[in-house]
Amino acid sequence: MPRIDAPTVAEHRANQEQALLDAARRLLLEGGPSAVTPAAVGAVAGLGRSGVYKYFRSGGEMLARIVADSFAEWGERVRAAVEQCDTADDQVVAYVRVTLELAGAGAHRVAVLGGGRPGDPAARETLAGHHRDLAAPLQVALAERGDPDPELTSELVNGALGRAIDQLDAGHPVDQVTRGTLEFLCRALQITETH
């Protein structure tokens, strides 16, 4: 029987699963989606390939889980920052700041790399669903500001954020990109930034 290195079997299984996900994430960031195979993940996590199959059926299943977890964590961070704000204007600013902070730390790379093949309709729909969930706090703030079409405006804001993230990926400093993006969006939305 394998050695259990946690107080309970359930905790041991949770720890093993997390170790596999951490290894898969590392492989994804270092080598792209094709690097995430059960054998490679098992080798990094110190578990045989057959042991990996006790937790995940395939590399694709691990990729889907990594992307879902990444979006969930991103969403929690954005919602927490937005909820701490007193005004809708401050909520929009917080949304932009936290999004660029997370992108600057590389969090978006997991979604970009692990999001499936570009022509895969299921992966595309999953990513679209995650993006809708992430945009929800922004849309609420825009509606509170009286925006006549919060959904369209949030798409435009997120388009600007996408280009800002491209600048981060190109090596531009996070502070500079964040400052420029906020100045642009605050002018466009007629927001007076308070902090």
UniProtKB/TrEMBL annotation:
Q: Does the keyword DNA-binding apply?
A: yes
Q: Which UniProt keywords apply?
A: DNA-binding
Residue ranges of domain HTH tetR-type in the record: 14-74
* Gene3D superfamilies assigned to the protein according to its UniProt record, in alphabetical order: Homeodomain-like, Tetracycline Repressor, domain 2
Q: Name one Pfam family in it.
A: TetR_N
SUPFAM superfamilies reported in the protein's UniProt record = Homeodomain-like
Asked whether the keyword DNA-binding is assigned, the reply is yes
**Residues within the DNA-binding region(s):** 37-56
Task: State the protein's name.
Answer: TetR/AcrR family transcriptional regulator
State the organism of origin.
Nocardia tengchongensis
